[in-house]
Specification:
This protein is an alpha/beta fold. It has ten helices and seven strands. A seven-stranded mixed sheet has the order 3-2-1-4-5-7-6, sandwiched between helices. Helix 2 runs antiparallel to helix 5 and helix 3 packs across helix 4. The N and C termini lie far apart (41 Å).
Length: 230
């Protein structure tokens, strides 16, 4: 895992200290160990964890200024991309949000052992926003929902002037076109689709700037979001 990180960071124009790399590898090892009894990741080879989880997450540090920023990872699962981002940029104030209690309990247990500070919130994204509306500089997500639905879950958390980084794959262009109305309705504006290399493939991130307040009617209940996407 450490060897793969060292080899992959230069391609992303990133550097980590020895301590940061050690912490990241310890997180990966803890994830794989817990994965034996809990479904945290389908990727179980250490070098692939480093490539497809860690380098993929760290690449976001090139796409926005994370220094000193308040960041929320919506639908974080096992802590991705939020935990690698926090390890890579320690000045981040990080909130990890997911509705799956067992995964969040594991994060509450393991992160203090690693010396990683984060607020861990077990809640549905469309419900937790009531106390956190437009209070983050950056929202990030690797959630599997289509972008038009994901925007309704994430953009309400972002301050005007802030940014939502939606990690998407080969269908990024198709999904951003499909989500154009949702982005506009929710107060966002697509800046660009960024590309970066990870392993032997190209990954894509939709960079959506928050240009005006999200109307109070959003987000709706998830059943409604799913039934009638914007």
């Amino acid at each position: 895992m450490d060897k793969t990180l060292r080899a992959g960071l230069p391609a992303l124009n990133l550097t980590l200290s020895e301590a940061q790399q050690k912490t990241l590898c310890a997180y990966g090892e803890a994830m794989l160990e817990k994965n034996k009894v809990m479904n945290l990741t389908a990727i179980v080879e250490p070098e692939r964890v480093a490539q497809l989880h860690f380098l993929d997450s760290l690449a976001l540090l090139n796409l926005a200024d994370f220094s000193g920023k308040k960041v929320i990872d919506v639908g974080c699962g096992a802590g991705l991309p939020g935990v690698p981002l926090k390890i890579g940029e320690e000045s981040i104030s990080l909130t990890l949000l997911d509705s799956l209690g067992k995964r969040m309990d594991w994060l509450r247990e393991i992160l203090p052992q690693l010396g990683v500070e984060a607020e861990v919130v077990t809640a549905r994204a469309e419900e937790a926003v009531a106390q956190r509306r437009e209070s983050y500089d950056i929202a990030v997500s690797r959630a599997v929902a289509r972008l038009n639905m994901l925007c309704e879950l994430c953009l309400p958390y972002v301050k005007v002037g802030g940014v939502f980084l939606a990690m998407k794959g080969a269908l990024a262009e198709e999904e951003t076109a499909e989500a154009a109305r949702a982005i506009r309705t929710l107060g966002g504006e697509l800046e660009r689709i960024a590309e970066y290399p990870v392993s032997d493939s190209v990954h894509r991130v939709a960079i959506i700037r928050k240009v005006k307040n999200t109307p109070a009617a959003y987000p709706r209940r998830f059943a409604k979001i799913k039934q009638q996407p914007l």
